Amino acid sequence: MTVLLDCINKKINTNCIWLMRQAGRYLPEFRKIRSVNQDFIKLCLNANLSSEITIQPLKRFDIDAAIIFSDILLVPHSLGQTVNFKKDFGPQLDEIDFNKVSSIDETYFVDKLKPVYNAIKKTKDKEELKDKDLIGFVGAPWTILVYMLNQKSPKKENLNHKFKDKKLVEDLLKILVKFLKIHIENQINSGATIIQIFDSWAGLLKEKDYDKYIYNPTIDLVNFVKSKNIPVICFPKGINDYKNYVSLVKPDVISIDYDVDPKKISDSIDIAVQGGLNPNFLIGSKDELKTNVRKYLDIFRDKSYIFNLGHGVLPNTNPSMVDYLVKFVKNYS
Ligand code: CP3
Hints:
The protein is an alpha/beta fold. 47% of the residues lie in helices and 12% in strands. The mean pLDDT is 96. The structure holds coproporphyrinogen III. Coproporphyrinogen III binds at residues 20-25, 34, 40, 67, 69-73, 85, 90-91, 137, 153, 198, 200, 312.
């Protein structure tokens, strides 16, 4: 058994912790590799380097899981849509060529993603991961679709005209569900022990559209992961109603963002919860950090809870604050 699985099943009374974006720009050892690897997609597809980056935070901190260093946008890339990461701008995708995307077959797709699977295989047996989980992940169909049609990170309520083409949206969602399952399956077969589904742009939708674009496609993926006997964590960032999401999608763990009231979640949801803390607290004072970390740990004291953030570690975070956080969480009782 791993610490995280024990935590999910509430078999232990110690706290467990990992952090979204625990490997990334706030670590000087990551920036060192990144400075000589300008092409981010290529870096993700370098199995040796992505395995090394995955382990970097485990060498520094007593965290309970690794998450494979990769990106949700490798899926559009592997469906033939060019993705570039521009400095100080984020991802930029070429305009979608639907005919090209719909002609991609499984062999082509898996071949493109082979380095990710090789990175998982290389990482799972590393000494630093002994008795720890290796988390594999995908973007939820809706969030991947947002990037493929919008071509960059969207601003709230500001999606382009392509979203009005309902047939395009629905056809693309179906293709994405199919390929995301393939990507999940290959990560599991390579050694991922937990899968997290990131729906970073769930908050863009109105509730009347949740069924079609969030619930139904995500349920399909969640059931698929469960059929492999692997726990699945869902992170529908910005969604209005976590309770309803949990009752319909039924993940093993629900990861909450920093805008939701943890007390309300604790009172209304009876599955394992992950996350919540605003990553900005890692940039302020230790006292303020401590007060807010304590709040989450106290509220979820008698529940199954995995400590994490309500979104990823910010690039301007000082690693010494992460060290302080991990030690505080591990020693708090
Ligand atoms: O440590 C980890 O969490 C594992 C690796 C990981 C990355 N991206 C590496 C990364 C994971 C799990 C992701 C998921 C991801 N990627 C999401 C979902 C979670 C979220 O943040 O909402 C999304 C929306 C993306 C798409 C993406 N990738 C964006 C919008 C950006 C640019 C903005 C940003 O946050 O930097 C990326 C780049 C990216 N992905 C970096 C890293 C470490 C930074 C790349 C760099 O060095 O410039």
